[in-house]
User: Fold these one by one.
Assistant:
Number 1:
Amino acid sequence: MTVHPVTLGAINLEARDPASLATFWASVTGSTPSPGGDTVHLPPAGPGGFAMFFRRQEGPRPERHAVHLDLTVPWGTRQAEVERLIGLGATCRWDVLDEFPHVQWTTLADPEGNLFCVAEHPPAQRAAQVP
């Protein structure tokens, strides 16, 4: 059996206001929303980026999120990025800073309550020094 490379085509989100949520995520990623009928497409902002689709929410939002996005930024830039995202309308939920030597992150919620994390991974030599 031949296994072909698998890549992420797009992340799909339901939203009470798809256009508004797409605008928030466009500001996060640096992309430009492309409305089309009942949905909004957010293409990748560049190589290595990811696409998103937003459509109208058809039922109540589940209380527990089974999936969320983990966004990665360079070491030492997480706090500045978190502050930028809060300025765009995200809400800080919690930080995980000292529990794991290979990563620290902040969990946020977008304007409609979808959780996502902003993570930074220390340089290899720093991760090896942390007990």
Note: The beta strands are 11-15, 34-36, 39-42, 52-56, 69-73, 91-96, 104-109, 115-120.
Number 2:
Amino acid sequence: MTGTAFTDFRTPRSVLFMCRMNAIRSPMAEVIARAALPRGTYVASAGVRHGERDPFVDVVLEEIGLSIGRHQPRTLDELEDDYFDVIVTLAPEAHHVALELTRSMAVEVVYWPTPDPTVAMGTREQIVDAYRAVRDHLSALILSRLAGNGLRKGA
């Protein structure tokens, strides 16, 4: 973890998930967090670079009753708001950019290393399994570190 941890264990009021292209990991985390966090929590996602929507994200989210809706990948420059209680980075490049952007801001930056499922090879089922693993990894982290108990030290 980078930065200081929340000491009052509250659920953050606003969360930004960042990855490289806002096509897989960060939008998946955004959708899962919206479902898991209390109503009124502002959740967004963005990428360091512009990406293309990935249809496998729809497949694995629909399996757990969630939908990415009309989400289109967006960069940090395209965000409507730029203040967040916590920024969760999911890829090394995003983490470095977040640290640089928040150098003079009172915002928590947390790094959750998350594999890129696009590197998976094999059958369609093997590829979808890689996306499922990312979905399940993000769900577990969101539920254990953000939902209910808030961001905990060591997150």
Note: The chain has four helices and four strands.
